[in-house]
Amino acid sequence: MTTLTRPPVGELLRCWRQRRRLSQLDLANDAEVSARHLSFLETGRARPSRDMLMRLAERLEVPLRERNELLLAAGFAPAYGRRALDAPDMAAVTRALDLVLTAYEPYPALVVDRSWDLVTANGSLAPFLDGVAPHLLEPPANVLRLSLHPDGLAPRIANLPQWRAHVLHRLGREAHLTGDPGLAALHRELTALPGGTDRSTPDGIAVPLRVHAAGEVLSLLSTVTTFGTAVDLTAAELSVEAFLPADERTAEVLRAVRSTVSEPAPARRGTG
């Protein structure tokens, strides 16, 4: 039998403070505690109360999943539950996701979890998956791997070095901010894939995804929607990634393609 050993809560607090590049004085002032008391908490000379721990986690912008780990390390019960997406009391969440996905039609939109695994999508995503190797689509399909892998969408991305630089920068930042070893491993994996990176400043207002589809090069801009007030881990870690046309020609093509293809949306994957 394996016994799970957690680092002391003070060590975890110090790691989060350093990850946010804050001094003890900075964090103490922000949380309205003395720097001396914070130092005692980090070294284990004092034990944080539940309220103090939650206050520090809030100031440090610790993700909900990791806030539970802080609480457990201090001997408290977790504060945030995790429900399966198909649980009855998650019906409002699934309805909201369906509404957002439908609203983006005829433009592709998909729901991913914190690991960037596909949860569901609208039917407009289907044409972009033509030619993708089946093994990349097996659940849980990771959408970043799918986009950058040579057997995935990568050969059809016209500005692959530029798009790779954007994706890898974003993923690396998420791995650092969350401390998630799974995201860090995914970043290493995707960095090792071929395709190059172009870190030059792009023209325009955002990095577009320029992809060969429907016999043309379509130009798309990415937007992200999240649940801003979620206190359930599943809901808090979901995001909707939508790809909107960056020019009128792309919009025309996507509208035409969607009107002739009746692809159903992928089945929703439970995330409990």
Outline the structure in words.
The protein has a five-stranded antiparallel β-sheet. The chain has two domains: about 10-75, lambda repressor-like DNA-binding domains (434 Repressor (Amino-terminal Domain), Orthogonal Bundle); about 90-260, Beta-Lactamase (2-Layer Sandwich), CATH 3.30.450.180. The chain is an alpha+beta fold and about 270 residues long. It has helices spanning about 10-20, 25-30, 35-45, 50-60, 65-75, 90-105, 135, 145-150, 160-180, 180-190, 235, 250-260; strands at about 110, 120, 210-215, 215-225, 240-245. The mean pLDDT is about 90. The longest helix has 19 residues, at about 160-180. It is elongated. Helix content is about 45%, strand content about 10%. β1 (about 110) and β2 form a beta hairpin. Pfam families: HTH_31, MLTR_LBD. GO terms for molecular function: DNA binding.
